[in-house]
Design brief:
There is one protein chain. This protein has 915 residues and is of the alpha+beta class. Among the domains are: 166 residues, no CATH class; 99 residues, no CATH class; 200 residues, no CATH class; 139 residues, OmpA-like domain (60s Ribosomal Protein L30, Chain: A), CATH 3.30.1330.60. 22% of the residues lie in helices and 48% in strands. The protein is built from 15 helices and 35 strands. The strands form 2 sheets. The protein has a 31-stranded mixed β-sheet that branches. Strands 32-35-33-34 form a 4-stranded mixed β-sheet. The longest helix has 51 residues. The N and C termini lie far apart (189 Å).
Length: 915
């Protein structure tokens, strides 16, 4: 036997022994892997997981395949504290590869998870059922001294099938269950090796048919996720159920859809998240007040496109925001708040507070602000209906065909957006806005144009202040709004013009037009807010007309229309306008109508600056004959501080006011024209005025028996107040403090007028101006020498002047009363004279002698009566024969025998009256 054969023979037992050992080890490996390790691993794994999670964990079975390097774990369940399962899976299959040894990387050919499930509960105490688990795993861990590399690993394929995730909301009055099922997730070629990317895809379906999808590329070293997402069919009414106990509104319907591309990565150990080409759509959204059927917000279409966001640079950009066909219904409640504002804002604040109280994140220092930009916003065919329910009768306004375009909107410094707005108000009116606006700094420069804004819908506001009804009328304005949001002192200014066209107002008593205005135009308007200022360069009034009617019951339509109801605490308080209205006597028997037309009216320098006074001028006519003119200055913001007014009325025919005069004067008017010149000045509440009243050729008509007529000698007063040209001139000054309740301008004017008439009646001759050198009171008496009845030269001159006066005033009649004196006249008639007459004292001597005469001789009254009658007859004869006065106008009155006052001669006394 050779040496080699011996060696081979000795090696055979060794090979057999080694093979046996290897086979034994393999068999042991197989036996251990298949049957020994699984029953030992199962309880150990259950205990370890239970310890880590803090919840009971059970595993039905663990199977290992040591030959295929795979494991299968079935029915792993994690339990709630109360014993209910809340997470787990049906099967976990892991298939490793032997190539891991060659590649020096743990390599999994496949990891497959079947039917995983999870239950997330929102408990009644507003906590999560996994709060304890989250707390345990969120505890900070010690930071390693050195940055360690990830262990090499490769997952060729990872699958999740038939997953199920349930959310149970137990906070509200009714439990809400939301389920996403089935859930599938696929991941391929995931590796911890550098610059290796794997592909992933997630798909989930919600219980309402909503779908969620994620797919993209995933890298672990470095960490980078890049892909796309999409959600469709998200039902907002289902989402609202989670909020219904915290809010007052209800989402009836609405679905959302979102999609986009995203990137998540760490750059210099800082997380950076980017969103690209994001889209969001809202369809068929409807919102009501909870428990009500009325739809307050209807939004059929709303979309946001081209959304991009960058967490690192803190920027968000949007290419387009588009919405169409929305309808909004709201109203201003009696407390002054809009219903939608009251409905939504408190709920949103409540939800924000709820979020803040539930957040456990510590407060951080202020970081860099986010910058946002929207390239374009388009709003088309929106509509809204707004009611003002603060009024007794609500005012309703509709806004239709609302179009809004905004370009280049952003909050970066000095970025200005282009803004365009167009809408329709109450079908006919239009509003257009064009300009620019910015956020940082806050600013706006907008051109605003309004046209055909009907006034009739504003009737409920008029109802609170006047008993008048708007029949027609529209507003047109053109201007510019400038807003500058300076720090601490924002400024708002409007510059432009305002025009009112075709205004017609009816009174509600007769439902007839009583105010018409062809056009009211204000130009050069400047309105400043913060501080508040108003200025108007010019105000033009074109063809205003007023129809003033006084009915049988004495109601004046203008006064009735503009007489608001006074509160009790305001009774007795009168403003200047009310005091001037008091000048108008309201009770009139018989209808009266007049038409006022303003042919020209301008106001210049209208401003809210107290130091600036506006100039105004008005021209017009009454009943197309009488001319009115007014001009002056005023402080527009406080007329009682300063007002200067000159007003004139020419050729106002008094015949149409005959029913008025019949009721209050007691006479109708047959002829006459009124002229007025009024000058008023109000300075610091002090009013000074001059009222010049002229009445030409006033002729009274038939007498009217009216219980309201003035108890004054009107006819006599009218006749006496006329001058030689038939004009009555009255000057009535007024003054006082306008805030003094005792200062009543109307009452002062009426008192002055009635005083003139009363004076004329009580002392008619005192009202006669000087005639041929004789004053009015001198014409009252015709003097005679004692005991004589012949007219002397002075008497005839007086009678000539009196005849001239009577012939100019044919309405006057004259009463003549002859008198005789028991002393002077009887002494002269008896033929005895005083023997001892002291110089310069003839009358006293005569009286002294009369005593002796009386004792010796009785006075003959019949002779004295005859003397008095003769004197009166002489006066009448002279007036009728020489003065050509109608004899029927001159009447003799019974004579008077009396003792004449000391120093008087015998005389005839005259009395004036009117027929």
């Amino acid at each position: 036997m050779t040496q080699n054969q011996k060696k081979k023979k000795s090696a055979i037992p060794l090979i057999k022994k080694s093979s046996f050992i290897l086979i034994s080890l393999f068999i042991l490996y197989v036996i251990t892997g298949f049957w020994v390790v699984p029953p030992l691993l199962k309880p150990r794994l259950e205990n370890e997981l239970s310890s880590q999670i803090g919840r009971k964990v059970t595993i039905e079975a663990i199977k290992l395949n040591p030959l295929a390097l795979s494991s299968t774990t079935t029915n792993l369940t994690i339990y709630e504290i109360d014993g209910d399962p809340f997470a787990g899976f049906e099967e976990l299959f892991v298939d490793a590869q032997l190539s891991s040894i060659v590649k020096w990387a743990v390599t999994f050919k496949e990891i497959r998870l079947l039917a995983p499930f999870g239950v997330l509960k929102l408990l009644p105490d507003k906590k999560l059922n996994i709060d304890d688990i989250l707390t345990k795993f969120s505890r900070p861990k010690p930071t390693p001294d050195q940055k360690t590399e990830l262990p090499p690993a490769v997952i060729a394929k990872l699958q999740v099938k038939d997953g199920k995730f349930t959310v149970e909301d137990l906070i509200g009055t009714e439990p809400i269950h939301e389920t996403v099922s089935p859930i599938t997730f696929n991941l391929e070629n995931l590796s911890t090796l550098k610059e290796r990317q794997g592909a992933y895809k997630f798909v989930g379906v919600g219980s309402s048919g909503d779908q969620y999808q994620l797919d993209g590329q995933l890298s672990v070293n470095p960490v980078r996720v890049q892909g796309s997402f999409s959600t469709t069919g998200n039902n907002l009414s289902q989402f609202w159920k989670h909020l219904k106990d915290q809010v007052s509104f209800q989402i009836i319907k609405g679905t959302t859809r979102a999609s986009g591309n995203y990137t998540l990565e760490f750059i210099d150990d800082t997380l950076d998240v980017k969103l690209h080409n994001g889209k969001f759509e809202l369809k068929d959204f409807q919102l009501t007040e909870k428990g009500k059927d009325k739809i307050l917000i209807s939004l059929p279409s709303f979309s946001v496109q081209g959304i991009s966001a960058d967490l690192r640079t803190r920027e968000i950009t949007v290419k387009m925001v588009n919405t169409a066909d929305a309808r909004i219904e709201s109203w201003l409640a009696p407390d002054g708040t809009f219903h939608l504002q009251r409905l939504l804002l408190p709920d949103l604040q409540k939800l924000l507070e709820l979020k803040n109280t539930s957040s456990t994140e510590p407060e951080t220092t202020a970081s860099r602000p986010w910058y946002a930009a929207i390239n374009k916003i388009e709003v088309t065919n929106w509509g809204a209906a707004i009611e003002d329910r603060t009024l007794p009768k609500p005012a309703r306004f509709t806004f239709n065909d609302i179009k809004v375009t905004v370009d280049n909107l952003g909050n970066k410094k000095n970025v200005k957006a282009t803004v365009g707005i167009a809408l329709q108000i109450n079908q006919a009116g239009t509003v257009k806005v064009d300009g620019s606006a910015g956020i940082d700094p806050p600013m706006a420069d907008l051109k605003v144009f309004c046209d055909k804004i009907a006034l009739k819908p504003f009737q409920p506001y008029v109802d609170t202040a006047a008993n008048a009804q708007i029949a027609t009328g529209s507003i047109r304005s053109k201007g510019r709004i400038i807003y500058q949001g300076k720090e601490g002192q924002p400024q708002i200014r409007y510059q432009g013009e305002l025009r009112l066209d075709g205004l017609e107002i009816k009174d509600r008593l007769q439902t007839k037009d009583f105010i018409k205005l062809a056009q009211f135009k204000t130009s050069g308007i400047v309105i400043d807010l913060l501080p508040n200022r108003l200025h108007a360069a010019k105000v033009l009034i074109n063809k205003p007309q007023a129809r003033v009617t006084i009915d049988q019951d004495g109601t004046v339509n203008v006064v009735h229309a503009f007489a608001p109801v006074q509160k009790k605490d305001q009774e007795g308080k009168k403003n200047l306008l009310q005091r001037l209205i008091n000048f108008i006597i309201l009770q009139i028997k018989g209808p009266y109508t007049t038409h006022l037309e303003i042919t020209k009216g301008t106001v210049k320098g209208l401003s809210s600056d107290p130091s600036i006074r506006a100039d105004f001028k008005i021209e017009g006519n009454i009943d197309q004959s009488a001319i009115i003119e007014s001009a002056g200055q005023m402080n527009p913001m406080n007329a009682l501080q300063y007002t200067k007014v000159d007003f004139s009325l020419k050729d106002f025919d008094l015949i149409p006011v005959s029913p008025y005069s019949g009721n209050y004067v007691g006479y109708k008017i047959a002829q006459g024209k009124l002229h007025l010149k009024l000058k008023y000045r109000v300075d610091d509440d002090r009013v000074d005025g001059d009222n010049s009243i002229y009445i030409d050729q006033l002729t009274l008509g038939e007498k009217v028996d009216s219980p309201d007529a003035l108890k004054l000698p009107v006819a006599l007063g009218v006749a006496l107040l006329k001058d030689d040209n038939g004009r009555i001139t009255l000057q009535v000054p007024v003054n006082g403090n306008i805030k003094d309740p005792k200062c009543d301008i109307g009452k002062a004017i009426i008192s002055a007028l009635t005083g003139k008439i009363d004076d004329a009646g009580n002392s008619p001759f005192s009202t006669i101006t000087e005639i041929d050198g004789f004053k009015g009171e001198e014409l009252r008496f015709i003097e005679f020498e004692s005991g004589l009845s012949e007219l002397n030269e002075r008497a005839t001159k007086k009678l000539n002047a009196l005849a001239k006066f009577l012939n100019e005033r044919t309405v006057l009649t004259l009463g003549i009363e002859g008198t005789a004196d028991r002393q002077m006249d009887w002494t002269s008639m008896s033929g005895e004279q005083a023997k001892k007459e002291k110089p310069g004292n003839r009358q006293e001597a005569a009286r002294a002698e009369q005593k002796d005469l009386t004792n010796s001789q009785a006075i003959d009254d019949k002779q004295l009566e005859q003397l008095a009658q003769t004197r009166a007859g002489q006066v009448k004869a002279y007036l009728t024969q020489r003065g050509n006065v109608d004899e029927q106008r001159v009447q003799l009155k019974p004579v008077q025998i009396k003792y004449a006052p000391n120093g008087d001669y015998g005389r005839v006394e005259l009395f004036l009256s009117a027929r």
